[in-house]
């Protein structure tokens, strides 16, 4: 059975981590393979315009399996060289796959997002939290560091000071505090989480798809580009957008006060 259950809602793909008995922990190659495969399929399927990622059960994702750490099995077996290689060829495939997605991805955080689960949420472009959500960059509590890229993603989500507070203390951040620090965009009642997340996804998917994809590329490029580099890329992308038939349709829809009807790509 696949770790990531898939459900289509028009142009929106809903992905549900489906291992509630482990609180959706990330520990095995099958899970890493799933993330890579799904992200590749999304990039190849122009009918998918937005993804929503959530967890089955009471947790979003519990991160690494602490029992495996204790027993030094799976990802945590072998000598330090083996373990470093296991990280590179294992869980680090997830941040690379998600970061390479060319459509927006929304994390619908239904419960605790701990360790690698917290980092998984920050890998997504937008985070909507249930009032029952909790975030913990808790690696130091176990005497380890965020080996899955959290030290790159978390400061970009909450700023350097807040990221250091979370990573150095390992203390949990409840949903209301996560909203105040900008870790999530919205907090909603548990029963409204998926409805609101899919509603937001639909509103994004209703826009011209080429413009959304290019906008995401620009947002990602801004993380490392200089202002001059980003302005140059923006000019090139804007020229492409002006040549797109969907741009003309969007302008016509604006003046005619109607939804745009955009071509499938």
Task: Provide a quick synopsis of the model.
The protein has 265 residues and is an alpha/beta fold. Helices cover 48% and strands 15% of the residues.
Strand and helix map with partners:
Elements: E1 4-9, E2 12-17, H1 29-44, E3 50-55, H2 66-71, H3 80-89, H4 93-99, E4 105-109, E5 112-114, H5 116-123, E6 126-130, E7 134-136, H6 150-158, H7 160-169, E8 173-174, H8 175-180, E9 186-188, H9 193-205, H10 209-221, H11 227-243, H12 245-256
Parallel strand pairs: 2-3, 3-4, 4-6, 5-7, 6-9
Antiparallel strand pairs: 1-2, 7-8
Q: What number of structural domains do the residues give?
A: 2
How does the major sheet shape up? 6 strands, mixed
CATH secondary-structure class of the largest domain: Alpha Beta
- The amount of helix comes to 40-55%
Determine Rg (CA atoms, Å): 19 Å
Separation of termini? 31 Å
Q: Point out poorly predicted stretches.
A: none
Share of β-strand residues? 5-15%
CATH architecture annotation name of the largest domain: Alpha-Beta Complex
Q: Can you say what the CATH homologous superfamily of the largest domain is?
A: 2-enoyl-CoA Hydratase, Chain A, domain 1
Q: What order do the helices and strands follow? A: EEHEHHHEEHEEHHEHEHHHH
Number of distinct beta strands = 9
Coarse shape: globular
CATH topology of the largest domain: 2-enoyl-CoA Hydratase, Chain A, domain 1
Instruction: Report strand order across the widest sheet.
Output: 1-2-3-4-6-9
Question: Roughly what is the average pLDDT, rounded to an integer?
Answer: 94
């Amino acid at each position: 059975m696949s770790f990531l259950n898939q459900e289509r809602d028009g142009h929106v793909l809903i992905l549900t981590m489906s291992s509630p008995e482990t609180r959706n922990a990330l520990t095995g190659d099958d899970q890493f393979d799933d993330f890579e495969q799904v992200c590749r399929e999304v990039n190849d399927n122009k009918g998918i315009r937005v993804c929503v990622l959530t967890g089955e059960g009471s947790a979003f994702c519990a991160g690494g399996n602490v029992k495996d750490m204790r027993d030094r099995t799976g990802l945590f077996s072998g000598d330090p060289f083996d373990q470093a290689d296991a990280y590179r060829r294992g869980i680090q495939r997830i941040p690379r796959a998600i970061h390479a997605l060319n459509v927006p991805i929304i994390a619908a955080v239904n419960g605790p997002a701990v360790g690698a689960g917290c980092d998984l949420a920050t890998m997504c472009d937008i985070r909507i939290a249930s009032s029952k959500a909790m975030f913990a960059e808790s690696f130091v509590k176990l005497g380890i560091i965020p080996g899955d890229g959290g030290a790159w993603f978390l400061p970009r989500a909450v700023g350097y000071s807040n990221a250091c507070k979370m990573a150095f203390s390992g203390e949990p951040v409840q949903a209301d505090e996560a909203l105040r620090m900008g870790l999530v965009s919205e907090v909603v009642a548990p029963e409204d989480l998926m409805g609101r997340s899919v509603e937001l996804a639909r509103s994004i998917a209703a826009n011209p798809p080429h413009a959304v994809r290019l906008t995401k590329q620009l947002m990602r490029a801004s993380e490392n580009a200089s202002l001059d580099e980003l302005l140059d890329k923006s000019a090139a992308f804007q020229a492409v957008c002006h040549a797109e038939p969907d741009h003309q349709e969007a302008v016509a829809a604006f003046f005619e006060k109607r939804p745009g009807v955009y071509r499938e790509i």
